[in-house]
Fold this protein.
Amino acid sequence: MSDQDQLASENDAPDEEIYELNRREVAAILEVVQENNRERLVELMESLHAADIADLLEQISANERRHLIALYGVEFDGEILSELDESIREEVIGVLNPEVLADAVRELESDDVVDLLEDLEEPQQEAILDALDDADRVVVEQAMAYPEDSAGRLMQREVVMAPEHWNVGEAIDFLRKSDELPEQFYHVVLIDPKMRPTGYVTLGKIMGSPRTVQLSDITEPSFHTIPVDRDEEDVAYAFNQYHLISAPVVDKDDRLVGVITIDDAMAVLDEEHEEDILRLAGVGEGSLTDRVIETTRQRFPWLAVNLVTAVLASLVIALFEDVIAGFVALAVLMPIVASMGGNAGTQSLTVAVRAIATKDLTGSNVWRVIRREVLVGLINGLIFAVAMGIVGVIWFGSPLLGLVIGIAMVINMVIAGLAGTVIPVALEKLGVDPALASGAFVTTVTDVVGFFAFLGLAAVMLL
Amino acid sequence: MSDQDQLASENDAPDEEIYELNRREVAAILEVVQENNRERLVELMESLHAADIADLLEQISANERRHLIALYGVEFDGEILSELDESIREEVIGVLNPEVLADAVRELESDDVVDLLEDLEEPQQEAILDALDDADRVVVEQAMAYPEDSAGRLMQREVVMAPEHWNVGEAIDFLRKSDELPEQFYHVVLIDPKMRPTGYVTLGKIMGSPRTVQLSDITEPSFHTIPVDRDEEDVAYAFNQYHLISAPVVDKDDRLVGVITIDDAMAVLDEEHEEDILRLAGVGEGSLTDRVIETTRQRFPWLAVNLVTAVLASLVIALFEDVIAGFVALAVLMPIVASMGGNAGTQSLTVAVRAIATKDLTGSNVWRVIRREVLVGLINGLIFAVAMGIVGVIWFGSPLLGLVIGIAMVINMVIAGLAGTVIPVALEKLGVDPALASGAFVTTVTDVVGFFAFLGLAAVMLL
């Protein structure tokens, strides 16, 4: 499949995004599907990358998807399956003709098959494993034996390696004579006699060096091996931190068992980010192609947690019913204090969660960061206290009310800075993903503190 | 600099994260800095990658930073500067001895120098440009002429290319004879006589093919060129979507002007993630190393926007002061309705913002997504309406109050689903980053609707 992308200069709608399917393309394809025009469909799809076809399938309705896949028939490519969002992958596999599915799967590299299998239910896993040759199936099953989300699942097993004592000439002769080099490789891994990797050399360096130069003299300065059971999140971090292009994977005896390349690491980085951003918002695993019931189910637990914390905050308000009855302006103003605290807390929290993910917030600087967040809360709290104090005086004509809301604001924003940093750090220490649960805790704290400080001060100072 | 990383198996604290500086290392380094022990400092730092040294500098105090840099002296490496967070880069450049700075900068590749210059003030830019050789300075100044955050700033100019009619043998001979191949390259770009790229071939394929094979017969199936003025965000998207390892950059006449490699694209992807996640939380450009005043200043505008929207919501409450005075339970329960709406809205919003960023939410499926979000809001709204209705009845003994809070909950959660999707899509259409401003709009909507629906219904049904 060759898909050359003619870019901006030839695009008739320059404002349209060029790296995505445009709406007209999707409409044109759906039209030929409706017309049952197979020939024209294949023609239209030919210029699309598998990733774009997957996006197309994600963007249309389940019904349109079924028709399109039926019409497209044997043209359906294994790579499209790889690129599909897991939320509709099962559906698509269910719709595919078993023979088309078998052909599609056989086209894939073993690491892509593993990636495909991970998210499927048992019977669909079996169907795919059965489609593979015996040799491929063994490789895939071995990879599936490694823990989920580990380097072992991510790596490819075909590694181009050379003894560390070889020179450039020997490496070139070996490579030129090899029958089966992997589709994608960029480095030759040097190994010692016990199969332990000791460094790697880029193909570019090999190309550019005289034949007599020792491989061990032209290894890359930055070399990291990855234990096979390491979490893929750490793998992505290492690639990003050390600008790795590929890295050898080793077993517990430090022996070479595979290699991970940067494109896989980049995909993991992207997934990890998606997870963080969705978790921070209290959305479990959501995807745009999930159905209504699935989405409702995913969002429900977080809303339930929020209901409990909101009721908790209401209980605090209920303590002061008499105070509010005596001075209804308090009911009008109290959400402002809680809301400002909630916002300041979310700011601190997000910076902390992100810094924990990038390993920038550690034991070495946690106290400095906490101090900073509290000070920032204090200063912004003071500024907004003055602003709200003035609003309170003008609106309700009561300087005392202005003072109460001002003091409550400062207290809540300081607490927000503190809670927004301490809570994610503590969750991380406890082994809980700070992105997952921090939000609910932090807003509970700022709601409770906000209402309590404001209404409590009002009870003391106004009545 | 050679930094081999001995991993897990030899780590005495297996629970400790292995891809980051550990706390003991930092403490040990700070100790030798205090002792003014230069020799031992150089020794300790030798095993650290530049990225880790940058992290170290970010994690210690400004004072410790100054001492460490002074003691480290000429060992200070250009790469450390590249890796430093921009928030302390200026400070570090200011502290560095001018000669050390000049040496450090001269070690860097031209695209790294460009990256360094982008975030600096005029006088520091001059100082660095002056340190460069004339040839390097011209290259850097040319790159700086491209728009900020464009492919032109990101690319490196050294491209390994070959005429499209060459065969493998010619390519190998050419590469073996070249004096100056770039440090990192993985592909040979094929060009036509007008310097327009027509495809690319991996070094692996060249190594593995007979000398007589035409290069044009072994090009990669997926080939994308990148216009030089394209936004780096789109570049990162294209690399991630099409699994590119490198991509040629072309000018407006489609002529080859440079190449972007995946490691740069991965760094951009990571930055874009950071931007999205921070903007969603109303944190401008924040970084963990910013000082208190800088951080206060960054967070202030978003808190100010929130204050305005919170006052807006309070004005809605003020409309119903009499109703609340007559029935104080309303003041106790009203934050629950607003809070549930705010949470549901944030869930929808985050999914939408993320889907827009990954180009999964487009004109083709926006109506289907809106319908889904509204339905999800309706179903969860109904469930929580029943739950809160029961709470209302038990707590305050009033079935009517239970009904009021239930209806208000359904209304607000449906509106939340609608606003959470429509607002980011609309902002995107208007050319505003949806991550930046959506949050404030959505919570304003859910606060105003929540208070208005609850108190309005109460006024009609309870009094």
